[in-house]
Amino acid sequence: MTTTRVVPVETLHRIVEIATRAPSVHNTQPWRWRGGSRTLELFADPTRQLAHTDPDGRNLLLSCGTALHHAQVAAGVLGWQSRVARHPDPDRPDLLACLDLSPGPPPATADETLAALERRCTDRRRFTAWPVPEERQAHLARIANHWGARAVALTDESERYIAERLVRRAHRLQWADPDARAEQAEWRDRGGEDGIPTDALPPGPDLVGGHRNRFQSAWDDRSAPDLEASDGLLVLFDTDDDPAAWLRAGEGLGAMWLSATTGGLALVPLSQVIEVPETRAAFRTEVLGSLAHPLLLVRVGWRSTARPAPVRTPRRPVSEVLELG
Ligand SMILES: Cc1cc2nc3c(=O)[nH]c(=O)nc-3n(C[C@H](O)[C@H](O)[C@H](O)COP(=O)(O)O)c2cc1C
């Protein structure tokens, strides 16, 4: 008979600490964890959902998916392999995943991976002018696919043109919507533990109640486009547009972002084009040929090594998000 070892509380704590470094929409960190003797359960926290711009919870689940990815990688690095059951209880839709942990050898690249998890962040400053080779973009898409998500690089010029047009239209529509603007403002400069500090956004005119917009160039048509010709563009998509697909896409996003970080690339999500129903529908038909649902658009580019490190966003302490059962 084999016995499985109990996971030390400090290890559960450390896994969750690393998982909380995951990206989330507006840095809402919409997750909760419950640790057992050999398990970690991930719950969605609907109190942190963006009611106006994310009424379906798509971004909420994508965000939880990135944390789920980070938790699996963190566990591996710390010498624990995880078997994951996603949406294990149909009666509890907020229970997103259960990780069953058992001892396993850490990968040879553990230190490098740990450093990349710590270093990963949203660097919205301009990328360098070097284009991202198509093969590199395809590699990122394959990584997302490996994690059960679907992603494809938009390399065709007409696809990129349409995507860019829709991104700008989404910005304009959201900018014209006072509720969407109020929601953005609510998650900026909250101080301590969540939200986005203004200093993490690109410099530009103050737009909302003395704060910068999360896309400072988004306020009107005259502004510079958000996308440069040298930017790589990838879209996460799925044939389903439901919580299971969103969670998978989040795991793929986490994996893609970690790989980009390791390889010197910056990745920035462009979620507004999916948040606005009109542009989401247009993206589905005009870019994806109605074959699949777009879930998140991201741009990638080479980070300049000459600049100082970007401003980091805060996190809630582990004691707030982890309950030990
Ligand atoms: C689902 C999702 C959507 C996001 N959408 C945007 C976006 O539209 N624009 C943007 O600049 N950042 C976006 N972000 C990045 C978050 O703002 C960022 O992850 C969060 O503020 C935490 O900061 P960090 O990534 O630097 O740790 C998104 C992140 C996720 C996970």
From TrEMBL:
Disordered as annotated region, ranges: 178-213
SUPFAM superfamilies associated with the record: FMN-dependent nitroreductase-like
Biased composition (Basic and acidic residues): 178-193
Pfam family, any one: Nitroreductase
Lineage: superkingdom: Bacteria
Nitroreductase domain mapped to chain residues: 4-33
InterPro entries xref list: Nitroreductase, Nitroreductase-like, Nitroreductase/BluB
Protein name: Nitroreductase family protein
Annotated source species: Nocardioides pini
Lineage, highest ranks first: Bacteria, Bacillati, Actinomycetota, Actinomycetes, Propionibacteriales
